[in-house]
Amino acid sequence: MTLMKSPESAMPPKVFDAMQSARSGLAELKDKTLFRRQRKSESACDTHQTFNARSFSTFCSNDYLGLANHPLVSQAARDALSVYGVGSGASHLISGHHQAHEELGQRLAMFQAAHIPRVKSLTFSTGYMANLGVITALCALPKVTSLDTGETKDFTRIYSAQLNHASIVDGIRLASKQSNVELCVFDSSALSTLRSALECDTSGHKLIVCDGVFSMDGNLGPVKELLDLATQHDALLLIDDAHGFGVLGEQGHGILEHLDLHSDRLIYVGTLGKAAGVFGAFVCAHETLCEWIFQKARPYIYTTATPPSLAMATLQSLNIIESAEGHARRAHLNLLIQTWRETLKFKHWQTPPSHTPIQPVVVGDNALCLKLDEALQSMGYLIPAIRPPTVPLGTARLRVTFSANHTVQEVKTLAGVLMDLESQHSSS
After folding, report:
1. Average pLDDT of the residues of the chain
2. CA-CA distances (angstroms) from residue 180 to 129, 143, 313?
3. Which of 191, 209, 215, 376 could anchor a disulfide with 381, C-beta 3.0 to 4.6 Å?
């Protein structure tokens, strides 16, 4: 006997509201050419990689010194596995803080010892977590009572550069939820507004936050000028040097070395997954401020520590950064940048005035940027399109980045390819 289905049971299940909303939102992203896709790498990070069984010349990673696949760094990780195993097992404050982490923190502090007095360091799992943890901790500093007036001031005002990385923006948002925080966004290319705001500021604590190297434009933040303002107006200055650490400075110590800056009001955040070629992040600050961050940074307190084998690999990477080899890699990187800027000549597209390994080509239109991404892939280049909201509206770009493992000829060839593409798309 055949059972007949009722009309109700034959109907497709109703899509619940959240699912329908997600589908609608995804369709809208595709319509606006803002939909993102992931690529799968099948080889080690380097200037030539395999993605989905195809070989590409890559100009898109942040492995600026070419250390991510360096044999000595890889060997250090392998050797450490036999001592520490794979995982750390717990957070730093439980049982996950190993000797390797301790040595790494001490070594990172030494990198900034000439610039921050009585400096100490903490390591974080990622740069994103470092900014979340450091900013929220600094915004949780206790109330200030004036010795002169007896007035208690219980709020913090943050001054954040307009082009700061998303992790800084989110750190400020999180701090605003937890504490009495006010935000002022400033233009890093014109500091008059910031100066005026600081002159009128009566808050208990002032925190200026800026990238050392802006990740999408490649230019340096006005760090020296910001430190002068911080000193004049009793503010702390947090510098996120994710893209300067390992690259800037004679020894690769970063932007503080590059600009020869010194102050106990500096908080220096660096990343270990870019020029250092490994993974993680760190903060360096005066021991009192570092101890406060240690006590209050929730992403540090409540996160499993990174594997100690990665800490040992990073120590080897730091050895290379400070060595003659590291100096030679930075010199070659600077030669590539100089060659690029001398060779590349556009009629319509823009190249911001960057003298770092980040060399964006701003084309403006989202759809055109995606077409160029696809055209470059067809020629064996991987340079992904960067679109809003990562960059401002109307500034879609190809974010070209260099590694010390690139050759001068590879850079010249890519410059020629991009100039040809501009000519094709300008005449079509």
Report:
1. 93
2. 21, 10, 40
3. 376
The residue from 290, 322, 354 where one domain ends is: 322
Domain harbouring 269, CATH code: 3.40.640.10
Number of domains comprising the chain: 2
CA dist list (Å): 227 to 242, 299, 355: 18, 27, 22
CA atoms within 13 A on the CB side of 259: 21
Asked if residue 389 has a cis previous peptide bond (ω within 30° of 0), the answer is yes
Say if residues 289 and 114 touch (Cβ distance below 8 Å).
no
Q: Give the separation between CA 132 and CA 125, rounded to whole angstroms.
A: 12
Whether the CB-CB separation of 242 and 220 falls below 8 Å is answered with: no
Q: Which residues pair with 282 in a beta bridge?
A: 123, 270
Taking the C-alpha atoms of residue 391 and residue 215, their distance in angstroms, rounded to an integer, is 10
Inter-residue contact 158 to 209 (CB < 8 Å): yes
CA 234, chain centre distance (Å): 27
Residue 252 tokens, joined: 């690769």
DSSP secondary structure letter of residue 360: E
At 357, phi and psi to the nearest 5? -65, -10
Helices (H), 119-165: 127-138
359 and 259 co-located in one domain: no
Q: Is the pLDDT of residue 343 over 50?
A: yes
DSSP state of 244: T
Supply the pLDDT for residue 150: 63
Rg (CA), the chain: 24
Statement to judge: residues 392 and 271 lie in one domain: no
Do 419 and 311 reside in the same domain of the chain?
no
Task: Please count the residues of the chain.
Answer: 428
Structure tokens at 257: 């070395």
Structure-block tokens of residue 246: 């390992």
Is 70 exceeded by the pLDDT of residue 220? yes
Please check whether residues 260 and 111 belong to one and the same domain.
yes
Please measure the distance between the N-terminal and C-terminal CA atoms of the chain and give it in whole angstroms: 68
pLDDT bucket at 204, cuts 50 / 70 / 90: confident
DSSP bridge partners of 283: 122, 269
The H-or-E segment that residue 77 falls in is helix 71-84
